[in-house]
Amino acid sequence: MDLSAADESKHVAIANHLRHAIESREFPVGSEIPSESTLVKQFDVSRGTIRQALATLRHEGLIHTSRGRRPVVHAQPLAQSIDDFFSFSSWVVAQGHIPGQRTIEISRRRRESPEPELPLGYPEGDFLVHLTRLRLIDDRPTMIERSTFHDSVGQALMNFDTDSGSIYEYLIERGAELDEGTHLVDAVPANALDSELLQVEPGSPILRVRRNTTSAAGHVLEYSEDRYRSDLANIRIRNSRADSAALVSASRSTAVNAR
Amino acid sequence: MDLSAADESKHVAIANHLRHAIESREFPVGSEIPSESTLVKQFDVSRGTIRQALATLRHEGLIHTSRGRRPVVHAQPLAQSIDDFFSFSSWVVAQGHIPGQRTIEISRRRRESPEPELPLGYPEGDFLVHLTRLRLIDDRPTMIERSTFHDSVGQALMNFDTDSGSIYEYLIERGAELDEGTHLVDAVPANALDSELLQVEPGSPILRVRRNTTSAAGHVLEYSEDRYRSDLANIRIRNSRADSAALVSASRSTAVNAR
DNA sequence: CAGTGGTCTAGACCACCTG
DNA sequence: AGGTGGTCTAGACCACTGT
C-alpha cells in the first residue's frame, strides 16, 4: 500500500485502508484481522501508528480488541458518516433513494423578543433566517423541515436556491462551522400543516426531531424542527459496551422499500 | 494526585480525575484545561499517557482539541454512561427521579415458528422468556416494556422478582454479555393496552423504541419493544464532526419536571 | 516568536489467551 | 511458551495558534 499521499496522515490512511477491507468483506464479520505486529511490517510504520488506526476503527464500532486476541470484525452493521446524520439529502442517497425538496417559505427578520421556540444562547436582536421546506423521498412527502439559522450562516442562504438540494453541504462548502448537533426525539400528533403536506390524518403520530447545531466553540448556528411521517422514516441508534460512549450508526432509516 | 492505586491504569486514573474536575465545574464550560505539557509535569507521566487520557475525554464529548489550542471544555451536556441507555432504572435515577415497575406478565415458552415480531437470528425451537412490565417514574406510568429474552439469559429471570428493579443490572451481575444494542426509534398510535396502562387517549402518539441486544460475538440475546408516553420522555442524541462516528449523550431525557 | 496539539518513532514491560 | 494487545516512556518534527 502506498502511504506517500501527503494529504492525509499515515494512521488515517491505514484506518481507511482497513475500513475499506472490512466493508468489502475482505475481512468477513467475525473474522480476525492481522495482528498489530503484522500490520507494523506490512505498512512499515511504528506500532503507535498502527494502534492509532485501530483505535479509530474501534471507536467506529467496526472492530473489537482485547488482550491476547487479534482484533475481531464486529457483527453490527457499518456506521455511516456523520454527514448522513446532519443532511437529509446525503442520508436518502446513502439509502439508495432520490431526495427532493419543495420550499414552503423563506424569510429573514430580526429576532423578536419572546421567541419561546428558540433555545437559549441566541443573541437577541440579531437577524435570523427562517426556512420551511417539505422534504421528499422518491417524490413522496416524508418530512417537514422548519429551520432557523443565525445570520452568520443564514445570510448565505438568501443566495441559494433552496429547492435545489442540500443546505448542509452548501453551508459546509462555504466554511460554516456546523460541528456539533444535539437532537431531541419525541412523538407528537400531526397538526394541520403536517396533515396537509405529509398527507396523513390530523392527530396521527409524527416523529419529531428538534436539532440544535453549534460550532465547536458552542455558538448556536441553527435550530431546526423536523417532522417525519413515522411510517416512512425512523431513527437507528447503535451502542456498545466496548465504548464508553454510545455510537449512532445509520441514524435514520427509511421504510419506503418495505411498503 | 495519587496514581499509586494499582487497580486502574494511569491514563484511566487521569481521565477520571479530569472528568470529575469538568463535571464539578472546576473547569467551567468553554474554559481551557491545562496544556498537555502542564499535565505531564502535574501527573509526572509521559505525554503519551496524557494524550490517551485526553483521547478518552474527547471521545466522550467532554472536550474539544485542536492544533495550537489548549483543550476546551464542551458546551454540550455531559455524556451519561452506557448503563443509563440500556437500563431504565439507572437512567431514571440519573435524572434524579424514582423508578418503579409493575410486572404485567412473564412466561417461558418454546419459540413458535412464525413469529414475525422477532428479528432474524433467533435460533428456532429454542425456549424464549417473555416479559411485559409497566415502568414508572415517580409512580407515574411512563413506559410499557415488552421484552423477549433468549433462554441463555432469560432463564435467570424466572428466579428474579421482576417487580424489584433493574433486570439489566441483574443480568450483567450474573455475567450476561449484553454488550451491544441496536435501537430503532419511531412514532406509533397508542393501542388499547397503551391507552389503559399509560393513561392516554387511544391513537395518541407513542414514542416506540425497539431494541436488539447482542453479545460482542453477535448473538441476539434480547429483543425489546419499549413504548413511551411521549410527553413524559424523549431521546437525546448528540454528535460531533470531531468524531467520525456520532455520540449518543443523555440518550433519554424526562419531561416530568417540566410539567 | 513561543507555545500548543497532531503525528510518528523505537524501544520496554506486563496481562492475557491459546497452543 | 510464544504471541497477542494494553500500557508507558522519551524523544522528535511539524502545523497551527496566539502575541
UniProtKB/TrEMBL annotation, chains A, B:
<feature type="domain" description="HTH gntR-type">
    <location>
        <begin position="8"/>
        <end position="76"/>
    </location>
</feature>
<dbReference type="InterPro" id="IPR000524">
    <property type="entry name" value="Tscrpt_reg_HTH_GntR"/>
</dbReference>
<dbReference type="InterPro" id="IPR050679">
    <property type="entry name" value="Bact_HTH_transcr_reg"/>
</dbReference>
<dbReference type="InterPro" id="IPR036388">
    <property type="entry name" value="WH-like_DNA-bd_sf"/>
</dbReference>
<protein>
    <submittedName>
        <fullName>GntR family transcriptional regulator</fullName>
    </submittedName>
</protein>
<dbReference type="InterPro" id="IPR011663">
    <property type="entry name" value="UTRA"/>
</dbReference>
<keyword id="KW-0804">Transcription</keyword>
<dbReference type="GO" id="GO:0003677">
    <property type="term" value="F:DNA binding"/>
</dbReference>
<dbReference type="Pfam" id="PF07702">
    <property type="entry name" value="UTRA"/>
</dbReference>
<dbReference type="GO" id="GO:0003700">
    <property type="term" value="F:DNA-binding transcription factor activity"/>
</dbReference>
<dbReference type="InterPro" id="IPR036390">
    <property type="entry name" value="WH_DNA-bd_sf"/>
</dbReference>
<keyword id="KW-0238">DNA-binding</keyword>
<dbReference type="Pfam" id="PF00392">
    <property type="entry name" value="GntR"/>
</dbReference>
<dbReference type="GO" id="GO:0045892">
    <property type="term" value="P:negative regulation of DNA-templated transcription"/>
</dbReference>
<keyword id="KW-0805">Transcription regulation</keyword>
<dbReference type="InterPro" id="IPR028978">
    <property type="entry name" value="Chorismate_lyase_/UTRA_dom_sf"/>
</dbReference>
